[in-house]
């Protein structure tokens, strides 16, 4: 839409060029074929010139500036964004506790409408802008398969984390085993979907807090705690002013131009855009990057297909199959491994950026991951 509107605006300027050239060539009376040749040359030049005029007008309109065409929809996205959550219900808790492989059943989607606004917006004279996002999530019962009150049997994440953190330290392991007996901590527990996502009281965390200060910054424990109605870390982004090729590039996050989670410079690079836009002129050969603080890294995207979107041909970009692959064939991912080695292919170990918690990131059902992962859990496909 924006593109079309810009092109219409560009037309009058292009037409003026045509008219003045034709008038001048009409004054040439030497011989007809020279006029014809001159006109043909003019037309070719004009077409080329016209195209680049339209292009530069359009690109200029796409630069983000206060009060500009793009600004309102950038601050408060008018397009509804739906956030779909699927969860796994552990269906054999008793056997699992006795050493059997976990068997899970996928439930959902639990659908949320996400409305994100941008706040604390500050434009800098060098063509960048700093902002913070504030997302709001609203449950959509009619789009969901289930309710936030649905009961789930799931792993007690804080307890498993605590146990995992001390598994090689005999003394602390004993302390946790004793606390488990005294306080009745459980490895598997029952929670509602809402509690799992948006927070619940964790007795394990409360107990641990009495002993030491925890790096976990929230009182309640939940997978999405701290994301609803709360302002996120600041991003600084290039607006495209002065250099359209840099449009939407994230320059820094949370005041840092580099990350320090990973073991190599390449992995610690903040590169790419926030995924809401890319510099004009994307080609099928491009390797695009998106950066998101929640993922703690930049994710590459490669061309997958040409698709029709509301009658407009569009390129679909997807993460490459090997985005979470390790081993000698994927040396560029080695810096996502830690001193204790690489996780199985298909998993990004989030421990370095999730307060030391045993949390991993993967495609759903370990898609494209090491087949042994799928065999460790029954019920995946
Ligand atoms: C522009 O200035 C801002 C604020 O001083 C700074 O954070 C940002 O890194 C600068 N960007 C570039 C590309 O130098
Ligand atoms: C998110 O916060 C808003 C505003 O405080 C609230 O209305 C909404 O119910 C919250 N969403 C969830 C999923 O808790
Ligand atoms: C999860 O499993 C428990 C126990 O089998 C069951 O009561 C509960 O309804 C299941 N939850 C969902 C969302 O299917
Ligand atoms: C696009 O993705 C589909 C589904 O994963 C895959 O089968 C296909 O090979 C991909 N095409 C290209 C050109 O990468």
UniProtKB/TrEMBL annotation:
Organism domain of life: Eukaryota
One cellular component (GO) term of this entry: caveola
Residue stretches spanning the membrane: 30-50
Single GO molecular function: scavenger receptor activity
Membrane topology: Multi-pass membrane protein
Keyword Transcription: no
Keyword Glycoprotein assigned: yes
Localisation per UniProt entry: Cell membrane; Membrane, Caveola
InterPro entries: CD36_fam
Keywords assigned: Cell membrane, Disulfide bond, Glycoprotein, Membrane, Receptor, Transmembrane, Transmembrane helix
Assigned protein family: Belongs to the CD36 family.
Full protein name: Scavenger receptor class B member 1
Species in which this protein is naturally found: Portunus trituberculatus
Phylogenetic classification of the source organism: Eukaryota, Metazoa, Ecdysozoa, Arthropoda, Crustacea
